Amino acid sequence: MTWAGKGWVEVTKKVWNGTAWVEKPTVRYWDGQEWMTRPPEAREFATYAGSASSSVASKRYATLRVPSGTRVNDYVVSICASVSGLPRLLTPAGRMPQVIGGNQDEISLAVACWPYTGAEDQVLWDLGASPQSKLINLVYRNGDVTQQSLTPVSDMQVYKEVDKVPLMASRDFMSVFVALTVSRQVTSYRWPDGVIPRESALGRFGSYEISVLTAETPGAGASAGTLNLNTAVDTAGLYLVTIPGRSDGRPTWILGDDRASELGTSTYLG
After folding, report:
1. 3-state secondary structure of 147
2. Cα–Cα separations (whole angstroms), residue 248 to 44, 45, 173
3. Which residues contact 121 (CB under 8 A, 6 or more apart)?
4. What pLDDT, on the 0 to 100 scale, is given for residue 176?
5. 200 has a pLDDT exceeding 90
6. Average pLDDT over every residue of 104-119
7. According to the model, what pLDDT value does residue 84 have?
8. DSSP annotation string for 105-123
9. Contacts (Cβ under 8 Å, ≥6 apart) of 199
10. pTM of the model
11. Contact 60, 94 (CB under 8 A)
């Protein structure tokens, strides 16, 4: 207690927050790079923060690290493409992937999304009896983790005997294209202008294997063009994964996109 001139009052306890003495210190948490008082604000278009990929053959279980530099509340997109099997996500626990391809004898694609908590440094998949699989982890920052979905794949297309894969219209927020090809000799590819290539896991040259290619573009409601492959493939699947954001209520233009963007005198960059 201390004398206040008129009576005894209880002394207010203060804590040094690193800059000044405060009565009620703000609770902070370590996000992997710095101490934060609250999660980062969600934006309309999440930004790419990192990726990792690997190929697995003749193994029941496969792990793939979360990219270094991933921060708490980053949005993780984990992809597993398998031959002759239905993969199951074991780590992180409690996350249910969306699996496309309900047959043990066909190629399947599994996609799981979740906000990074800082506890899971790697992703563990049970590949079942699959003789080969491709794994990719993508990380995006400033997505709206409160809007994560159990069905992140919002659209898909399948083609036979093609060397060109038309992209479906990109939708709201950040759109991630996942191309899955089955062939013996795909060695190179080209995404259209306006689509940014990200991680890929190619099959070995000269063997009958699957390849997984990923790229992204802000959703604008129109197709960005065509994915070109250096050779015809037996099968090509294209999947659209949406990274949820928080709309600012303004229309979106993509510079250089003559299909969906017409810049006018009232348009400005923000």
Report:
1. helix
2. 6, 10, 11
3. 65, 66
4. 95
5. yes
6. 86
7. 78
8. TS-EEEEEEEE--SS--EE
9. 51, 52, 53, 136, 137, 138, 214
10. 0.82
11. no
